[in-house]
Design goal:
Layout (H helix, E strand, L loop, with lengths): L3 H27 L1 H4 L6 H25 L6 H20 L9 H23 L4 H26 L3 H10 L6 H25 L7
Helix pairs in contact: 1-3, 1-6, 3-4, 3-6, 4-5, 5-6, 7-8
Length: 205
């Protein structure tokens, strides 16, 4: 049973998780072909699946935690098993193909194994409030994982990044601004040194 000191935390985390799930759907809809389309990269699908799994886990765990007179061990264990299965399916199934990040897989798997262990211990010791605090930290980890995956998901494809670089800084984002500036400086410095060796005066622009 969740202590009264954690009810407020799980209530807030449930609201945040619900909002982030909605925003994830919006982000996917804006880049559907690159994420879930027929020609989408496996890594993009894996990132979307990992973010959705983490947010769903945090949302359902938080909702169970604020439900009165509920032993949190059983739902936490069930959610962890489901999340581990989803992570394994994402990494090893044809859904993800070979370009799925190994770090993504290991990080997610460790998080859900931790949840599984804590949930199982809560089944054995349902009145242990320290274990409920441990689940609160698991929710923190799930949010961190989901936000990291979502941010990676919004990064441009290599072809898009090179296209932004070719267009120049006026049509690109901050990353392309920096890349364009570094590239321009890398072209300008050798030319300036060559002029100096030839004794040619530098012309502005």
């Amino acid at each position: 049973m969740t202590s009264s000191t954690l009810v407020g935390f799980f209530t807030a985390s449930a609201a945040v998780a619900g909002s982030l799930v909605g925003l994830l759907f919006v982000a996917i809809s804006l880049r559907y072909e690159q994420i879930l389309g027929a020609t989408a990269r496996g890594a993009n699908r894996a990132l979307a699946g990992a973010a959705f799994t983490a947010l769903t886990n945090a949302l359902l765990l938080s909702l169970w935690a604020i439900l009165p007179r509920t032993d949190l061990g059983y739902p936490a264990t069930a959610l962890a098993v489901g999340a581990i299965w989803s992570t394994l399916r994402t990494h090893y199934g044809g859904f993800a193909r070979r370009d799925t990040s190994t770090r993504l897989f290991i990080g997610s798997l460790l998080l859900y194994i931790c949840e599984l262990v804590v949930g199982f211990l809560l089944v054995l010791q349902p009145t242990n409030s320290d274990l409920v605090y441990d689940l609160a930290y698991v929710v923190f980890g799930a949010f961190g994982a989901a936000l990291t995956r979502s941010w990676q998901l919004l990064q441009p494809e290599p072809s898009e990044a090179s296209g932004a670089l070719a267009r120049g800084p006026q049509e690109a984002g901050l990353g392309a601004h920096l890349a364009w500036a570094v590239s321009a400086a890398g072209r300008a410095v050798p030319r300036a040194l060559a002029r100096r060796r030839r004794g040619t005066p530098h012309r502005p622009g």
